[in-house]
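Tutorial handout. Part one gives the primary structure; part two gives the three-dimensional structure as tokens.
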Amino acid sequence: MKTGNFLLWGLLIILLAVAGFFIYREFLAPEPEPTPTEIVDSNQLSDTNGIENVSAEGVVVPKREVILGFSQPGRISEVLVDEGQTVETGDPLIVLDQASLEAALRQAEAALQTARVNRQAAGTRLEQVRNTAHQAEAAVRVSAWEDDLPDEIEQPNWYFTRTEEISSTRVEVEAARRTVEIEQEDLEMVLERTSSADLLAAERRLSDAQAAFLIADQILERAQDSGDEDLEEQAQKTYDAALSELEAAQDSHDRALDTQGAERVLEARAQVAIAQERYDTAVDRLNELLTGDESLDIRLASDELDRAAAAEAEAESAVDTARTSLDESTLKAPFSGVIARLDAEPGQSVSPGVEVVTLADFDNWVIKTTDLVENDVAMLSVGMPVVVTLDAFPGREFQGTLEQIALWSEDNRGSVTYEAVVNFTPGNVPVRWGMTAFVEIEVSE
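Part two.
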């Protein structure tokens, strides 16, 4: 047999063996018996005594700390403390240059004093005006019965009360005001639509000529009174020239009035004049009725008092602001503690919000955790007992209490963590800010 045939038969035998094994495993081999699954009671997940601990790492920090800075810009004039110094609540720490702030306060106080005087004067004027108005009102009440009314009005003077008359007159004032606006708009439309350029030019010339003539007439009268012939001669020449221009302007105006467009302009001007006179008369009538406490003088004096009172209030606010700025130029301790860090020196310029002092209360300490994961947080609640150990003091244990659990999470190297605050008392052990701590929190099932 040739070598090639031998190899072919060998390959065929191997393929048949593989196919037979596959058929046996899939169709002929017996089913294996399933291994029974052990059912575990969930209550057995905890240890036998029902207690398990949650562990976390943290850092020791003062229970109270604050970073202080100024609320206004300035230059430091004094630094009254050193790092490590103990201070009490309200102690001054750093002072800004106060020269400009003191000057601003003095200026604001002077303005307030002036505003108070003005307000008092306005109040006095109001009382004087009120007394005068009341005296005038008495005379008006008596003479009102004697006023003659047009024959077209049938009711006697006393028929309507003064309040009713004032209300009706105010309605008339407002109606007259609107009529003035309407007639003025109509006049402007007439001037735009008609060929009134000649009339307008003639009116301007006549107006100028009238003004010049009135002045020349007064000059001539004064020159005649002076008795100086030379002055009188020159004044007469000025008068004659002005009179000549006035007559020429009047003739030009008369010729311009002969056009149809000029007639429309004159009618519109007359309507404006009538409307304006109606409004002015209504206002005068209203002012006659406004006597006593309703008089215009009292209203003006009352408005003046209101403005003076508002100015006084504004000046008081300015004083408060200046006094606050001066007070805030001295940085003070908000509570008793130790100056943990100081970043200020005399002559240094500071901006609002720049940190210059860190104050801490080293009598009370807490631990803030750094790696408390979300699975453990779900088992914790405030008030649970905690055992604290510190790297700096091996073999020592401190008792603590879980005081606070953050409501928001943080991302710590891809893990969701929550900061928890543990309150503990180290006693006489000299703990320091930033020491590494470990906490064991007992969780009761």
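Part three, for discussion. The chain has eight helices and 14 strands. The CA atoms of residues 133 and 414 lie 84 Å apart.
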